[in-house]
Amino acid sequence: MASDLDFSPPEVPEPTFLENLLRYGLFLGAIFQLICVLAIIVPIPKSYEAETEPSEPRSAETTRKTKAAIPSANKRPKKETKKKR
Fold first, then answer.
1. Could you read off the pLDDT of 29-79 as tens digits, one per residue?
2. In sequence order, what are the residues at sequence separation of 6 or more whose Cβ sits closer than 8 angstroms to the Cβ of residue 23?
């Protein structure tokens, strides 16, 4: 009965190129996700904002002109429909 048992290690096939590509791609994706999560959690010092103060504040007229010149992407032009009689 003891001679019937086979304790040799199972044969595992060598991973193919696509399996290796998938494996390392998943590792890179996981590292990228960790970097993104850490970028959200860890605050960045905003010392550069004090150095780059605008030398001349904008007037209200120039602000209104720029807002009027750029049409909103959400607003579509109205369709002209003919009246049904």
1. 999 999 999 999 998 877 765 555 555 555 555 555 555 556 555 666 667
2. 15
3-state secondary structure 18-84: HHHHHHHHHHHHHHHHHHHHHHHHCCCCCCHHHHCCCCCCCCHHHHHHHHHHCCCCCCCCCCCCCCC
pTM: 0.42
Q: What is the amino acid identity at position 20?
A: N
Tokens of 32: 């990228």
Q: How far is CA 55 from the centre of its chain?
A: 34
